[in-house]
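Lab notebook, bench 4. The sequencing result for the construct came back, and we need a structural model before the next group meeting so we can plan mutations. Quick request posted to the team channel:

Model the 3D structure of this chain.
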Amino acid sequence: MSRSGRDEPDPEELRERATEDEAIADALEELVIELRDEPVKESRLEGLFDEATTSDPRIWNTVTAFIDVEDGDAVVTDESKLAAGKWAPEIVDDCDTMVTIDIQRGLMPDDFKYQVGRELQDRITEFREEAARKRQEADELEGDGE
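Done. Here's the predicted structure in token form:
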């Protein structure tokens, strides 16, 4: 519970969570820049590319990269494939966000960069919007307390 005895978080806690969301968005932006500027095989998303382009599409539908932000860096902690609508058994701890791509044998690196970059941009937008919402809520809570 918050200081006011209600179940809503206090403004300071909301601002801390907004700062965390911004840090995740910043780290994901760096990952997008790396994806754009570096060869896929030298990027942190190499494993996602390999799984998406070499897995048997008759068995696997999609592959997901689980991303955790540690000390300001986006770290791909694992990749997991989805088969016929059922998740593979891996459980990933400390996942801040995920990027999912369809299994596509022969997918060209530039097409991979475009698809994954677009999805990462969507995650960045979501984290920035959530941070703004939390800051606004914190401002409103402080305004109510005056």
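Residues 105 and 120 are 21 Å apart (CA to CA).
Will bring this to the meeting.
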